[in-house]
Design a protein that fits this description.
alpha+beta; rod-shaped; four-stranded antiparallel sheet; about 120 residues
């Protein structure tokens, strides 16, 4: 119903309102006592006073690396195609050519991990 839809919109608006919004009677110093506050997927901080900046950087790093997994692979020379693919599509920290194949310490997309798991030498 349209009544339910309007109720949903207003609850979203209230939920998405910045927590830094305080009434004019609240002292800003009291708000700063609560900072930084980290919840799932959100951080409340003061950029002006540099409160919560480390937490923000940590959240960004976590979000950006969330789709990747670090590992060490030993890829046989017979699968040179895998080495080429990884050089193009993974973060390569180290490559070492051994008699048994190519050892690569990499950060790999989780989508690719299943295929390359057969070459897993050990978690980095």
């Amino acid at each position: 119903s349209s009544k339910g839809a309007s109720r949903r919109r207003s609850s979203v608006a209230v939920a998405s309102r910045p927590s830094g919004h305080v009434s004019s009677s609240a002292a800003p110093e009291r708000m700063e006592e609560c900072l930084p506050a980290v919840t799932e997927g959100a951080i409340y901080l003061s950029a002006k006073k540099r409160i919560g900046m480390e937490e923000l950087v940590g959240l960004i790093e976590k979000k950006l690396s969330g789709g990747y997994r670090e590992c060490t692979l030993l890829i046989p020379f017979t699968d040179g195609r895998a080495v080429s693919y990884l050089n193009e599509n993974a973060v390569v920290y180290e490559t070492e050519y051994l008699e048994s194949g190519v050892r690569m310490r990499i950060k790999l997309r989780k989508e690719d991990y299943g295929y390359y798991e057969k070459y897993l030498e050990g978690d980095a």
